[in-house]
Design a protein that fits this description.
The chain contains three helices and four strands, in the order H-H-H-E-E-E-E. It has helices at residues 2-13, 24-74, 85-89; strands at 102-109, 116-122, 129-133, 138-140. The longest helix is centred in the middle third of the chain and has 51 residues, at 24-74.
Length: 141
């Protein structure tokens, strides 16, 4: 009877092979694989974020150009005379700058008011300043 009890107790304490947890080696392999994937993914994510910031800056400049053209269309002589960043950000033009990405907008009409240059500073390199010129109609870094 005592032998049977000891044998039963020993069987209860021993776990079956399929009920054991992961070994330390298996856990280390999983952690290493996750580390390798993170080392690949993080630089790709950061470069995409930088490209998105630059696209946002270019978009802010183009939106300013559209607001300036709307301003000139509202003027009797169709010129950009009197336009500045404050006028473009007020109603009805509502030129918005993406905070954290773009800053220091400037709208500068030429003498005579037939052309305008819009400049927006970007918080990103390699092109920290984007400029729109109505003479060329293009955004340039």
């Amino acid at each position: 009877m005592l032998n049977w009890f000891a044998k039963s107790l020993k069987e209860m304490q021993e776990k079956k092979r399929d009920e054991r947890g992961f070994t330390l080696i298996e856990l280390l392999v999983v952690v290493i694989i996750i580390g390798i994937l993170a080392a690949i993914a993080i630089p790709v994510f950061l470069s995409q974020r930088e490209a998105a910031n630059q696209a946002t800056c270019r978009s802010d400049v183009r939106n300013g150009a559209t607001a300036a053209q709307a301003y000139a269309a509202d003027q009797p002589d169709g010129s950009y005379t009197g336009v500045d960043e404050v006028a473009l950000q007020a109603a009805p033009y509502n030129w918005k700058i993406s905070t954290g990405v773009s800053s220091n907008p400037a709208a500068t009409p030429s003498a005579g008011g037939d052309n305008i240059t819009i400049t927006v500073d970007c918080a990103s390199a390699p092109a920290p300043v984007y400029t729109f010129s109505s003479a060329s109609g293009q955004v340039s870094p």
